[in-house]
Amino acid sequence: MADWVEACAVDDVEEEDVIRFDHGGRTFAIYRSPDDEFFATDGFCTHEQAHLADGLVMDDIIECPKHNGRFNYKTGQAKGAPVCVNLATYPVKVEAGKVMIQIV
Amino acid sequence: MAGTVKRDYSLVGESTRRAIETGLASAEWYHTDVPRKAIKELMQRSDGPAIRDTIIWIIAILGSAAGAIYFWGTWWCVPFFFVYGVLYGSSSDSRWHECGHGTAFRTRWMNDVVYQIASFMLMRNPVTWRWSHARHHTDTIIVGRDAEIAVMRPPDLLRAALAFTGILDFRYSLPALVRQAFGKLTPDEKSYVPEMEQHKAVIAARWHIAIYIATIALAVFMRSWIPVVLIGVPRLYGTWHMVLTGLLQHIGLADNVVDHRLNTRTVYMNPISRFIYWNMNYHVEHHMFPMVPYHALPRLHELIKHDLPEANPSIWHAYREVWPVLLRQLKYEDYFLKRELPPTARPYRGEFHEVNMSAAAE
Fold first, then answer.
1. Which residues of B touch A (CB under 8 A)?
2. Is B291 within 8 Å of A63 when comparing Cβ atoms?
3. For B143-161, what is each residue's pLDDT tens digit?
4. Total structural domains in chain A?
5. Among residues of chain B, what percentage have pLDDT more than 70?
6. What's the CA gap between B12 and B21, in Å, rounded?
7. CATH no. for residue A41?
8. What is the span of the domain harbouring residue A88?
9. CB-count exposure of residue B187 (10 Å: 0-12, 13-18, 19+)
10. What is the ipTM of this complex?
11. Distance between CA B18 and CA B175 in Å, rounded?
């Protein structure tokens, strides 16, 4: 059964930005889109072990800080070299000012 | 003093095995602390600066080509070919580089278009080189891992000098494209290009070769050298500026370390060289934060220079610094230049590297 876990407060993430969230020995990335929606993906780039939370959010794209690999953080889709493998995404909901993610 | 271990620059050899075993491959690198807000602001993309620079670049290329054609057969064509050659054979390298990172323009297709054009001008396979450059950033100057080490140890000075003529690069690049066009990738190339991308490298090489064949056919049809002097051959006579600036990125500094302050150099350059080189003279900054676009590198430099070795004040100064190091490396290949940090910097940390510091000159 997948658990809902509190990742952060809404205000912890700036608009069009990302933060890191560690839980249960795993690392996730929590995004706030320009439309003020929240999303969650695995925290590491699928190309190499780089923290996506150090990257740049542009519209619906997260760009990895190491090799500029790009993913759509809403769908996890890899957008071309040097990333070829999609990113895992997780359901997100906001409750009482808290961002919750459902970890599988 | 520890004994010298012969370096093996193959990407599938003894040094590769050692780099992986010792954790030098895909390691955690030192980064200067920069507040998220500041680095996020520096990373922001915009199309404006690159569109402006690309318009100037294209006008300068077409203008110098037109002048070279107009004055063909007279000595007056020489200065036009001089300018055209540098724009074609040198400035294309920085365009290839920045657009390969996807940082020059905010709009993705603009990066892709300029990347493809610049790759062709450089006789570089746009697929294999994209991956080799990713490896260069993962494992900068890690022997056995980095595919882009320009001057290996012990240094081959004749080879380094010939690089300014473009002859060696030409001799390597064109046959490599022909080989790739026939579907053959070397074991080194296969080590850094994922299998699912390898067919794209073959297709790209075929396009490049097709354009060169068309250029030669046009030259034969016109009974003129002009097409080949404008397409392909500038890779020879226009490469010198790319080599002049590019060699300084890492030459004479440490290898097998995971701190860019030890293996990478920032050099202040004149505005023309900086336009040609698209600010890659701020090279430590670029390696530490590859997401920062070329036009924001001077601001990044101001922000973090307290934590970096002092920049060389000129190209000339940097070569004067490098020359005695290269001479020493001829006899003792472990020797390198360890650049002094300012008192405001965080010191080089032993846990970040296992370099033989006794081999260092400060």
1. 26, 40, 43-45, 101-103, 106, 108, 127, 130-131, 134, 137-138, 194, 196-197, 289-291
2. yes
3. 999 989 999 999 999 999 9
4. 1
5. 95
6. 13
7. 2.102.10.10
8. 3-103
9. exposed
10. 0.84
11. 31
